[in-house]
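Subject: mismatched residue count in predicted assembly?

I count 530 residues in my input, but I want to confirm that the predicted structure covers every chain. Input:
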Amino acid sequence: MTLKDQACIVGVGESAYTRGSQKTVLRLVLEASRHAIRDAGLTVQDIDGFVLSSSYIYQEALAANLGVSDLRYSTTVQMGGASPVTALQSAAMAVTLGIAHNVLVPFGWNGYSEARISRRERPDAPSRPDNALSQALRNYYAPYGALAPVQHYAWLATRHRELHGTTDEDMGEVALTSRFHAQHNPRAYMYGRTLTMEQYLQSPMIASPFRVLDCCLETDGACAVVVTSAERALDLQHDPVYIMGIAEGHPYPADDIPNRPDFFKIGLSFAAPHAFEMAGVMPQDMDFAQIYDCFTYVVMLQLEALGFCGAGESREFVKGGTLRIDGDLPCNTHGGLHSEAHVWGLNHVVEATRQLRHEAGLQVEDCELGLVTGWGDFGDGSLVILRR
Amino acid sequence: MQAYDKPLPRGEDFNGDFYQFCKQHELRFQRCRDCGTWRHMPRESCQACGSFNWAWERAAGKGQVFSWTVIHRALHPGFAVELPYAAVVVELEEGVRMISHVLDLPADQLRVGLPVEVVFDDVTPEITLPKFRPSRIRQSSP
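Triage response: the counts match. Full output below for your records.
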């Protein structure tokens, strides 16, 4: 038995995406959750499971505020930005085995007004609890001024450029694609703000090779999705979106970037073969890809890990508009973390669901199959393959 | 002299041992007593054979540049005066890799494979950070 086609995404919702929400994280998550439950055609009483990502909110408070009085299953995934897609795996297992019937998968944060990644290493920032990455970060990276993801992932990008000749313009193509797609999405933070290659190349360098426009947004906001069994999904409001294949993966070792035998073998490198095998499809079968775009080059690395192109070939793959809505592999059709909002990629799941319902703002015509990746911490990865 | 205002290693447990050797200007890594595998960061057991037996063995201090990033915006104010500076991945001859700085080399001259050797920077009376500089002699070929 596998999880193939056993569970479906039946409801999606989000809060507004802003810089300065003036709301608590819990409030944002509650707004998104109520939208998702209503979108599914369910009521709060139907929800009996949560799979949370990180610890910005607690299940006790979520249940109490929503009015979920019989919570049968609750767990929390700790894979940074890879958590929301991994959370779908846990939700699918729960509804398939009957541990819960309808599982809510929410995520929200005030990523601009409270938790700006670019400012959290300042001495006056509130201290953060230790996590699995603290040993490497505090003892071996931070003393050399390597404090944040933009600097850590730059080590991967620099070596890729040195070995394979990846250029600024190649990475810029990823940034421009997201911004172009966001112009069709009124929810997107960058809606109404176009971007040219010249503007991209003129944006200030943060940690080479990453300019500020290689980095995703810092925004406040929340998303939520509802997962239920394939059987129950047939009776609900929308066409079900089936989870065909799903897997998580962890680089080795996951808690230290430099000492990986293969520097470019990321979590997704492990997850992708498992998810494609479960789904029984090939990368080439995908009608779109929503790829976790914390940084432009990280999208390129994931394209290679997914098997859309060989190692070092993403620079050729992205040329010529491949990732654009009318290209061979439309990518981040909502604008992604770069131009819609940074909601740890749960907004990618929401967008993929809308695409497969054929109700997206910028619709991939007649799409039947698509994928969503997650990326987090020091390169943890996750992949879900979805079909209508 | 102005107080050192950059982040310092916390130096707990094995990490404290690593930095105690640095304070003595010795670059030592854990090495498995049973299978001989070197490792870094410090860990409880050998990932190659599972052994709990290990020793802090002294590394030759020679290696090469594996990757880097040149940082143009300080995310901690202590580094503002250093901008731009490179956080470099160095691969030691023993096979372990570590983050460090390469001194005496403009950032635009960093190259994959550039030979480097360790130097010790006593940044505070308590803490010494291992850093690197371009090797002065040609590395011996195997």
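The helical segments of chain B are 13-23. Marking this ticket as 'not a bug'.
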